[in-house]
Amino acid sequence: MSQKLLVFLIGLLLVSALGSYVYYRRAVASVPVDPWSLVPDDAVFVVATRDHATLVRHLKETQLWDNLTAVRYFQQVEEHVGLVDSITGTPNVVLRFLGTKKVLTSVHVTGARTFDVLFQVPIGSVREYRQVRTLVDGLTRDPHYQVGTREYLGEQLTEIRERDTDEGMTFFNYRNHLVMSASPALVEGVVQRLQHPNLPSVAADFQSTDFLQLKDVDATLLINYRRLPRFLSVFFRPEAEPGISTVTSLARNGQFEMKLAGNKVVFNGFANPETARDALQQRLRLQPTQRLRMAEVLSLRTAVLVHLGLGPVQVLRPARPANVDSLNQQNLPLLDSLAAGLREEAALCYLATPSARIRPAKLALVYCANPAKAAILLGQLRRQNGASPAFERVGPYQIYQTGVPELPAQLLGPLFRGFALPAVAQVGNYLAFGEEAADLRLWLTDVAAGEVWSRSPTQVAFLQELQPQARLRVLIDTRNSWNVLLRGLVEERRAGLLRNETLFQRFPQIALQFVPPANEAEPGAQYFTQLVLRHPAIGPAVAKPQAANGTGGALAFKTPLTSAPALVPVTGARVPGVLVQDNQHVLHYVTPDNVVAWSDSLLGPLVGTVHRLTTGPATGYLFATPSRLHLLDESGRERPDFPLNLPDSVQASSLTISPPMGRQAPRLLVGGGGGNLFLYDTNGRAYAGWQPKRMEFGLAAPPQYLVVGGRDVIVVLLENGYIYAYDEQGSVYPGFPISVGARLHSGAFVESGPTLRRTRLTVVSQHGERVSFTLSGEIVGRSRVATWSRSSVFGLVPDQNQRRYVVVRQDGGRLNLFEPSGRPLLSQSFVTSGPKPVQFLSFGTGRDAYVLTEPGPHKAYIYDTQGRLVGGQPFDSSAPTVGLAFDAGTNTYQLYRIIGNELRRTALKFN
Asked: Which domain of life is it from (predicted)?
């Protein structure tokens, strides 16, 4: 489309209105015009806008306007708008003319390598007519343009052309509704539609939906997915068309609302499922949706990912052909057996390339329920097809030749064609097929180094903003996909992309998702669809205090907060400080005055709780992330020798520290997942007997580190009911292990004594029994707290000072709290049946609080000592726990809770 279209658009708008406004206003325009009925059926996209001044303001607020004006086409637009302003003598005349009119812009394919745009703008008042006359008078004196008219099917079309070029605009006025395009064929197509007024419009499937009536909606977008492949063929080489056609065959059309919000543009809407017989929709219909769990094996080089969530992959496979050669006939049983173990996730992945001249690595990834069985079947296929048994090693992984042409397509359907002689590798539960071994080598190098999405704060933050479950996802990293895109474009489109690089890379993260409805089997059911264009937030989050006096209010961060508030006592302050982490893994310290004092970017989320060291050689905030141990001072700076780097194969799941022992360095016990335990001190020294100690069963809770009579005792409770006690060298204390006779799901309550025999620990088993034992290995007490059933789950919940405890029993949607003696404290029924975190907070005699958090609806229920609900209703809280402090000076409680991106503080009075 010409870069001077805007001036043509204004010219035709004004000339058309000059000749026909009065007639249409009096004789015809009293009958409303449905602008959607004028859009030709071959429209690929239709954008509807209304409040144009607000749209421009939002573009500026989101900094997208700066990127648009850096593109050469929009620079020309600005010049043309300036020309119109100079002719009329009024600034911003075009924006004011558009005002709040409903303007439709549709995109159509008009040739093998061309597309054009059709505009519709209504003219609605005498004042606008006079503005048009002023502009037309100016244009008639401009020697650069010539204007002509012609008849077409009873309508008068006006054509404006530049005298020195063939570029121009064709338009006509239909009932004071201006229709214009640089393509005469598109305008003629509108006239042809007028000959058949009873034809359904392109928006007939969405007549009951008007997103522009909703708050904060900047525009709407209608997509014809059936015509999308042809539109993309204008830009991409022919070899990309089959894959595009398959992906777009999930839906036939859809409509979105568009919202500009901060660092992203979000399109939410609905799509009608495709009804064609061979469409992808017919294969995936009624299949379950899935989470994107393969983030742990997706390289940070990923440029484009097409992810399918489904049940068994057999639904993707084509029907078995009647005539196959003998070799393929021999392979069929093994292929069927291999495909039978593939399920839940299948994805096509393209990796970034350093140059557009290099073929991008293409992978087919699929989840395998039984990796050992799959490896055996792949080995049988290799032997049966004469493939070499040799393999290439990359880190702990191996690459084999498959010996079967187009094996991914035979297993996963036609979307996964293009693997002539694929190689294969296994990483955990995932099979990966590459066009060549070099493709897998590149990918495995990143996986072995941990350069994957699940360890990238930017990618994790992006995935957290998307729908948790979907049937189809298309995820694009525009920075990684730049050379991939350049290589896939036809030659004549590359220059245009290079000129618009700034705009294209404004949003590095793009995601299109399709989520089926719960009632998918019913007629008329639609997909929920979401298109997100996101620019990662730069720098640490910025807090905005809501109350300067510090007695209550909120702090709004730039990004959502993901950790529970960790309260930090502050000397001389009535209320504590707070540590919180956002979804960019930035840790923030909020002072008692409700101000962010410092922020520190971490490589991962917090693991467990934050420990405050107040004595010894090193003081500060000690905590773990999955790969490191951190010790920050009061200003948020790392202490010398920190962070401590855990082994590459270790992902920390818990951190336990020893009690303070004068000037002795604390010991740090790290749970590494899978029952692995590591022991260090704050100087980074490892204890030989703990490198690592692997438990034969899962941990019921993080281990407990005790010091009794100067001896280190590490108590490890396993889910199978066995309890171990170790010294710092990893040796088991006499009398251990002991068994409580039932499973355990929580830690122990410790009553310290001067000796092992006089130190008592108490646990609550899943049979509802309270079992007490000493560190000499003797069970000294058993008593029943409450009745149990197969579905009930018991836990022991100590208070924040480890001085008292209560017992919780959860059974589906029912939760009960008991004193250790078995006396009921309170009972609560919930809508949801999942686990509910429980907190027991004690602030002295008669000042107990019990907090029950329901994660699903994000509610926190706070009860006082008498079992009464504080405030009469639950509090909103999106974190699994809340913070609660008691201010004795004012006899009030300070409640700290997380709601999305806000840290809220509320003063409470208990009954």
From this structure: Bacteria
